[in-house]
Design brief:
alpha/beta; 4-stranded parallel sheet; 15 helices; binds 1,3-dihydroxyacetonephosphate; binds iron/sulfur cluster
Length: 313
């Protein structure tokens, strides 16, 4: 299909959205054009809450596969489409459900309370006691049953940050986000020295060495409120590059500087960036690719996702 001019494409998307009774949800890391056409742009927590509350018959989820799965877990009767089935996540891939099941079986005597970061498959969610996002992980870990051994999967960096914040010991699955671990102590020192007055805000998926250089460590949604409420004007944003569009759109009077890696001036998630306006239009037109989850897995995963939504109130 030849590329239509963007305005035609946007009109087509809006018309398909109306005809399908669809809602378009987009993560903060999506390209600017997708953020502009979405009904809601947010972090993993906000997107899950929107998915749980929508009346739409179709959810077009612009993010990565596990996000579409979460929407389907909460809406088994609705049609959930994503622009590109290949948009996965290195963090989710680092913890296959079979490996986690084998680990829990091999460590039965520990009677783990398993906390799973939302960046994981439906199969992992089905094995977990509760799901967390970066926006509610500290609150939910604090509410974990006293005296139980805690296993945190799959992100070792976010897990380590939750341990720091809660003081609760946890065993950590050794997964990581390939984007956030590209920020280094050197790359952040370098940008800080170029912008001495700027406030540094980092995502908790970053390594400890990088988190230690940040003035604030928080979820992508909290980045918006933190920068809005801060008296500072200049901010170094240490997360995926899509976040800069969201911040610049909401806070046009402030200055946002991308956190660099050793190799690049900013960090892109190759999975998040697989989605395009054309693919969004096509998934609304064809209702494909669609998310399907075996019902037994979906029902078990729903318990841990709903527990998260309940504990986030
Ligand atoms: P949040 O937007 O929930 O902070 O998550 C970041 C992320 O890496 C999603 O893939
Ligand atoms: Fe996964 Fe990292 Fe990409 Fe988020 S930024 S989708 S955690 S690979």
């Amino acid at each position: 299909m030849t590329a239509a001019p963007t305005t035609d494409l946007i009109s087509e998307i809006l018309e398909l959205k109306r005809a399908r009774n669809a809602v378009i949800l987009a993560h903060n890391y999506q390209i600017a054009a997708i953020q502009e056409v979405a009904d809601f742009v947010g972090d993993s927590l906000g997107l899950s809450q929107q998915a749980a509350a929508t009346d739409a018959e179709v959810i077009a989820f612009c993010g990565v596969h596990f996000m579409g799965e979460t929407a389907k877990i909460l809406n088994p009767k609705k049609t959930v489409v994503i622009p590109d089935m290949a948009a996965g996540c290195s963090l989710s891939d680092s913890c296959p459900a079979e490996k986690l099941a084998a680990f829990l079986e091999a460590n039965r005597e520990k009677n783990y309370y398993t906390i799973a970061y939302i960046n994981c498959s439906a199969g992992v969610k089905a094995l977990a006691d509760v799901i967390v996002t970066s926006g509610n992980a500290v609150k939910i870990a604090n509410a974990a049953p006293a005296g139980r051994n805690i296993l945190f999967v799959p992100d070792q960096n976010l897990g380590a940050w939750v341990i720091e914040k809660t003081g609760r010991p946890m065993d950590l699955w050794q997964g990581s986000c390939y984007v956030h671990v590209e920020f280094t102590r050197d790359s952040i020192h370098r940008i800080k020295s170029q912008h001495p007055g700027a406030v540094t805000v980092a995502h908790p998926e970053c390594t400890l060495a990088v988190r230690m250089l940040a003035d604030e460590v928080c979820s992508t949604e909290r980045m918006v409120t933190y920068c809005r409420d801060s008296a500072a004007k200049d901010f170094i944003i240490v997360t995926e590059s899509g976040m800069l569009h969201r911040l610049r759109r909401e806070l046009p009077h402030k200055n946002f500087i991308p956190g660099p890696t050793d190799a690049c001036a900013c960090a892109d998630c190759r999975y998040m960036k697989m989605n395009t306006l054309e693919k969004l239009r096509d998934c609304l037109a064809n209702l494909e690719p669609q998310i399907h989850i075996p019902e037994d897995i979906r029902a078990r995963a729903e318990r841990s996702v709903r527990r998260m939504l309940e504990l986030s109130k």
